[in-house]
């Protein structure tokens, strides 16, 4: 028996409803893509962070960043020159002694040579301690102005700002040796040795912040690059900001550190939370604390994503922006005071 054929009117109605269904399906897909993009943007960039009310800051107009970088860059601070590394550690120690801090020294032996982490403790002991660290060694026998004399200069500037401050929680400021290759990611890495020591001593560490390459800024268009194409749409293409970087699991810590840095007027701050495997996310001493299950983030100018002298002979002191470096140190003061509330 022949099937009845749909009328012209029925065909017209089916076509209309089919088109509406396809449009609705496309609309749902577009909405889904927009929701996914919005979630990615929110989790990755940590937006809508506002500066915490800025605490009263000591009047420290000159943080001596330029003199710290000048001294360190005259030394050959790669692992093959342990005497120069020891001289760098001694310089950091003397800067802290001059501020009346009690300096502690952690010596460790690698391949028959002695290397040192030097550190100071502020505030009450073992009370949800915040660790802030920077490495003072370099990759190859290069000056290492941005990588990482800049991080040490910011650390020393911060210690000067915190002098005589009353902190409710513990803070450790530490200068690490042997962050650079061939020891990066190894058990001999200075920060790895230090993080293990804190765990063995049952120190309560709530968070860690690594300072690495924090002295270069460039406001020219196209000066900032990224590990993934398209991130310039989220962050811009000018290398004029400091970045807080961590894993997705460090999202709340990233947010807190970002809010503290924003307390320093004039300092542009961005943040990125991403998988640890994204190139650059784990490229410093915070990795050692991740390995001890401590939340940790990196503060950096993004290094080789903007700075062409990274791990090169022309990483010189005259290439740094010392106003920017001072702003980072002042921002860190707000971070510490916020943690110590």
Lay out the secondary structure:
Layout lengths: L7 H38 L19 H9 L8 H17 L4 E8 L2 E10 L6 E7 L9 H17 L9 E6 L13 H11 L4 E7 L20 H4 L6 E5 L4 H11 L7 E5 L12 H5 L5 E5 L21 H18 L2
Parallel strand pairs: 3-4, 3-5, 5-8, 6-7
Antiparallel strand pairs: 1-2, 2-4, 6-8
Give a structural overview.
The chain has helices at residues 8-45, 65-73, 82-98, 145-161, 190-200, 232-235, 251-261, 286-290, 322-339; strands at 103-110, 113-122, 129-135, 171-176, 205-211, 242-246, 269-273, 296-300. Helix 4 crosses helix 9. Helix 4 (145-161) links the parallel strand 3 and strand 4 (171-176). The protein has one domain: 3-Layer(aba) Sandwich (Aminopeptidase), CATH 3.40.630. The protein is globular. The longest helix has 38 residues, at 8-45. It starts with 7 loop residues before the first helix and ends with a helix. By secondary structure, the chain is of the alpha/beta class. The mean pLDDT is 91. Strands 1-2-4-3-5-8-6-7 form an eight-stranded mixed beta sheet, with helices on both faces.
Give short descriptive properties of this protein.
single chain; 341 residues; Aminopeptidase; eight-stranded mixed sheet; alpha/beta
